[in-house]
From TrEMBL:
Annotated InterPro entries: NAD(P)-bd_dom_sf, Sc_DH/Rdtase_CS, SDR_fam
Protein name per Swiss-Prot or TrEMBL: Uncharacterized protein
Single GO molecular function: oxidoreductase activity, acting on the CH-OH group of donors, NAD or NADP as acceptor
Family matches, as Pfam families: adh_short (PF00106), adh_short_C2 (PF13561)
Stored CDD domains: SDR_c (cd05233)
Amino acid sequence: MRPQVKEPFGSVSSPLELSEKEWDSTMRTNLTGTWLVSKYVCKYMRDANIRGSIINISSTVAVERVYQPGALAYASSKSGVVTLSKVMSMEFGMYKIRVNSINPGLFKSEITEGLMKKPWLNNYCRRTIPLRTTGTTDPALTSLVRYLIHDSSEYVTGNTFIVDAGHSLPGSSAQTLHLLSFPPDLPLLSSKSQTMADQTVFSNLVPWDELSGKVVMVTGASSGIGWEFCINLAKAGCKIVAAARRVDRLVSLCDKINGANNVVATAVELDVAAKGPAIEAAVKKAWDAFGRIDCLINNAGVRGTVTSPLELSEKEWDSTMRTNLTGTWLVSKYVCKHMRDANIRGSVINISSTVAVDRVYQPGALAYASSKSGVVTLTKIPMMSFIVVNVFFLNSCDLNRVNSINPGMFKSEITEGLWKKPGLYNYGRRTVPLQIPGTPGTTDPALTSLLVSSNSAYLIFPLFHEIHQTVTTADLPFSSKSQTMADETALSKLVPWDELSGKVVMVTGASSGIGREFCLDLAKAGCKIVAAARRVDRLLSLCDEINRAENVGAVAVELDVAAKGPAIEASVKKAWDAFGRIDCLINNAGVRGSVSSPLELSEEEWESTMRTNLTGTWLVSKYVCKHMRDAKIGGSIINIASSVALGRVYQPGALAYSSSKTGVVTLTKVMAMELGMYNIRVNSINPGLFKSEITEGLLKYPGLYTYGRKTIPLKIPGTPGTTDPALTSLVRYLIHDSSQYISGNTFIVDAGHTLPGIPIFSSL
């Protein structure tokens, strides 16, 4: 059993040993406190008609990449802060209030004071942090805070900025990196002589407005965003290498820059879709122009035609991939080789798109979206692996940074046709939280202010600049009842994992809705059921129904998941004793709460929602898993979250519900990491629209059918999803021993609803 080690952020405790008092204290401080302070400040901003900025400090432990053993409450609360930021940004846009979160990595603070003294920390950082440095708040965080306060960030809201020297990149772990060709004597860059925050480097830096001497290469510079980057950066003192295919336009651009700033811009012909040797030659010419390149901006790209995946030609697919993805890699490769050999601290900025960030997929843009998503991954992977093994990004004493910027709707050749759509203004008014009118985003300063500054030396974060631009086809065919996914004739023969005899399953929230259906279905599969809820009369009715058909296979246990720990512990013991074991726990109990603005939501309702959905899920899991551990039987925990927890279907008026369900997803992953040693698997299911008490009011909405037709890819009718078999079959699988290798997963069951990224309020 792991001992508790006191730290300022709470004790380092197993989920099984964490106290209820400490959980509540952590939630109150980190999550509830953040909401309450924001609520009252934003009320003043709104009433005074002030454009404001809310900056929530979260943590990298909240971004699904650096879950920490022993930090269940801390990680769950900080994950809730991220969702709180996104929901508030959506709600407050109408008041011109921006809300973003910053997720720092390892910085010196009271929270990390104990950790900084660990003797193994230096070696850990050397092996797991790509930039091999810990953070100094000034300027690593302060420069970003300045930006988010400055008016140049008025187009940025709902973002999560990760500032951690690459620590949270997928695969950046000791378990992964020790397998690479890692030089054993590679120094940690946070020594006094080489610290990122060396005052000789940073003492005179004024962010963004003075970049004299920086040499910047911009691809796709002959028009649009690339052209504007060049003009703006030249004004800031940069020397410009403008690269593109259309040399005549480049010459015109360079003449314009040089006429005002002497000779500080040169044109280089470059086709990013060319073969490697041609690109290498163009990069050499670019390097030789000024003898160095400090920053590469990979801006060149093509959109392609709007085509169905079934009609898209192989030629167009290859062309799009070659330009947007392969070209970005090849130009980066050859520029970074020069940076490495010249021992230059450099920055690579890849211009991707919001269509690449899982939230604004566009019909007809398969190749474009896939290529831009590839750019985001390409951005992250070199930072995780190539830097550490010195392939082509770093040597032992430089600091190269690779980031992507994902712009929303900006004027460029790619978006030229879209700007002519007559309904664009109305679309933007209904779907863009900051209520930016249907005019192009202003590249300067919305994008240009993010570029090049040396104060970003600690920043490796994807910039998700979210201004959604989805084309909705209103007259797409829609499934009739005879074609529904739950067609009985199609499903009658599909009974997966139909044999679960002997498994004992405890279901919370079993008195109605989805929980009741789980109990009925699992009893048919041979499970023994422990039905738990507050309404005992309904539970008894359910158990009678099961026992009449299946003999004595179900018992009722009174359980209020919002109760205090001792009451929950007693109910769990009664549930365990009913059959002498529990093989699976389904945490299904939950509440939705009222539909309220973050400014009007009451503290009482916030606390009630958190207590039921998040704290209750943890406490029931804690006591059940203790029994599983002590009995050495292993088991499966299934947490029912929601699609609103996925960062893709945030719902106005559901701040507490969304934040609590996001916390459940993080809780699932942290517990999966901690409890694997006891052979306990933990997964979450995130349903879309299913019939339950939570969705009862929504299902009566007259426009639901139209909404579903427009936003659900599988075109399921605007009627509730059928729990059996859509959810029950998945639950059976996660109970069955065939899922013994599955843990820490989030299963989305929503007919594709969360893919388009169209907020619910835009279609109702």
